[in-house]
Amino acid sequence: MSKLYAVGIGPGRKEFMTEEALEALNRSELIIGYTVYADQVRGIFPEKEYITTPMKQEIDRCRMALEAASAGKTTAMVCSGDAGVYGMAGLLIQLESSYPGAEVEVVAGVTAGISGAAVLGAPLGHDFCVISLSDLLTPWEVIEKRLRAAARGDFALCLYNPRSKKRRDHLARAVGILLKEGKSPDTVCGWVRQIGRTGQEQKVMTLAQLKDEPVDMFTTVFVGSGSTKRYGSRMVTPRGYEKKQ
């Protein structure tokens, strides 16, 4: 039986990868992944064999990885951020039983939510929700329901996939829902683009201003709770330690 590592590579730079992730990639003979993610590790491990696929071929990609591991080749499936957060780890485990020669092991990675939050300070310092605004796999009605629930609970929010070429209005629609459900227009918000990569940008603004911000698929958006405060170019959602003093 051969290992199939589902490896979260963080934003992609070696400095953001865990030691466990680097060791798993080093042990692997074959690295498989979405072309963009595989290219991010190719410079670190140029001697490895690579198989890449474009977007929307996730099932084929996972089956190729499982077939390779089942045939005796130690394999790694690379995913941006963490393999279990909007990544391939779940699908690999779902398919694993059909490939008795493969053993899936999930290797944790640094997510865009965590690394982006660090850039902005501490926007996720208390209870928070992570919601993707992409409706490719989740109906918009479900996304809307989750946004409403998060707003009613006054959670801080981390929003993935806020806008794409085909979904240009999703962030504006999300902001409208949050405002309708009671979020203040003055709620502190922020975004980070190209986290940990060349050209990284970040900005802090209010919820009312957020809907018109120039975000894209490489941007992670943060919406504060009612207690989130702005400190210059940073934002903090306090845990409440100061109340004990």
From TrEMBL:
<dbReference type="InterPro" id="IPR014776">
    <property type="entry name" value="4pyrrole_Mease_sub2"/>
</dbReference>
<keyword id="KW-0489">Methyltransferase</keyword>
<dbReference type="InterPro" id="IPR006363">
    <property type="entry name" value="Cbl_synth_CobJ/CibH_dom"/>
</dbReference>
<dbReference type="Pfam" id="PF00590">
    <property type="entry name" value="TP_methylase"/>
</dbReference>
<dbReference type="InterPro" id="IPR014777">
    <property type="entry name" value="4pyrrole_Mease_sub1"/>
</dbReference>
<dbReference type="InterPro" id="IPR000878">
    <property type="entry name" value="4pyrrol_Mease"/>
</dbReference>
<comment type="pathway">
    <text>Cofactor biosynthesis; adenosylcobalamin biosynthesis.</text>
</comment>
<dbReference type="InterPro" id="IPR035996">
    <property type="entry name" value="4pyrrol_Methylase_sf"/>
</dbReference>
<feature type="domain" description="Tetrapyrrole methylase">
    <location>
        <begin position="3"/>
        <end position="210"/>
    </location>
</feature>
<dbReference type="InterPro" id="IPR051810">
    <property type="entry name" value="Precorrin_MeTrfase"/>
</dbReference>
<dbReference type="GO" id="GO:0008168">
    <property type="term" value="F:methyltransferase activity"/>
</dbReference>
<keyword id="KW-0949">S-adenosyl-L-methionine</keyword>
<keyword id="KW-0808">Transferase</keyword>
<keyword id="KW-0169">Cobalamin biosynthesis</keyword>
<protein>
    <submittedName>
        <fullName>Precorrin-3B C17-methyltransferase</fullName>
    </submittedName>
</protein>
<dbReference type="GO" id="GO:0032259">
    <property type="term" value="P:methylation"/>
</dbReference>
<dbReference type="GO" id="GO:0009236">
    <property type="term" value="P:cobalamin biosynthetic process"/>
</dbReference>
